[in-house]
Amino acid sequence: MDYRSLGRTGMQVSPLCLGAMMFGGWGEPDHDTSIGIIHRALDAGINFIDTADVYSQGESEVIVGKALADGRRDDVILATKVHGPMDVPMGEPGGDPNRRGNSRRWIVAEVENSLRRLQTDWIDLYQVHRPDPATDVEETLAALTDLQQQGKIRAFGSSTFPAHQVVEAQWTAERRALGRFVTEQPPYSLLVRGIEADLLPVTEKYGMGVLPWSPLAGGWLSGRYRKGQQVPESTRSRRMPARFDLSDPANQRKLEAADAFAVLAEKSGMSLVHLALAFVMQHPAVTAPIIGPRTMEHLESQLGAVDVTLTPEILDAIDEIVPPGVTLSGVDEGYVPPSLTDKFLRRRRTA
């Protein structure tokens, strides 16, 4: 397997990153099964694993830690994230407001918890999972810089940050003589191409590694979503119903596009999974898309994508189905800024 530079960190990573979101209560609850999938990925040449504290409330990190405890830790570039609430399940109200977010207080505390769950002395890439409007980015960067100087993390990055906030973080790091985000982890797939317009050019300008999440669009590009067939149930559709509700016209457009991509893949002599992953891997700004298998079958169906190269004719046909820079459903972008969710930020005050 050919390896790629992780931004300008000097670390070399496989062109596919193993995502661990589906290991634990959110997906595969059996630890031994999940560990088997991790070991198979490592044996196939993948040396890059990405998880997060919030995945199954820490259980995913525990599973990854177990999988690497047999002497494999030194051979793996290990990434995790911080930001989400850890005292209540994701999406549920309540909880301690200081046990989440991007404050120094929480980052310094939570990195210790991740290190313990992962059974490691250091994290290769520590990522801020989402922007935090309540915290100045300088506060976040300063805390991460201190952790890097202490040797607890080797590098740090962002995830699902809008392009303008990536730029703000870069400028803040330069002006305040702080460490900077060296990677960004955005949503990107055949159905979610919005980042091509602004974010990817920004990451290229700053030499950042790009680790796209959901390259199969949450399963829409697995080959199971076809026109005229019943929409399959999945753990993701139960957890995130808005992304799969066909009463939403945007999801209907996704179904039509997924079907068209399946036809294109068949004509091109490959699986839709390989078409989708190869498309993301082939963008010059992308380092490694994150695959998130729940079963060994899922993993095996994705590994071969590293050997696929899409011709200009196939790439042109892709652009005809979903044009460059177009995202079919805003729900799939993973982050909605307060400027849209808070109506008082969109309306001029009147007496």
Would you give an account of this structure?
This protein has twelve helices and ten strands. With 351 residues, it is α/β, with parallel strands linked by helices. The chain has a domain at 1-185: Alpha-Beta Barrel (TIM Barrel). An eight-stranded parallel sheet has the order 9-8-7-6-5-4-3-10, with helices on one face. Helix 2 crosses helix 3. The mean pLDDT is 95.
Q: How many helices does DSSP assign?
A: 12
Helix content: 25-40%
Distance between the termini: 65 Å
Please state roughly what percent of the residues sit in beta strands, choosing from under 5%, 5-15%, 15-25%, 25-35%, 35-45% or over 45%.
Answer: 5-15%
User: In CATH's first tier, which class of the domain at 1-185 applies?
Assistant: Alpha Beta
Oligomer: single chain
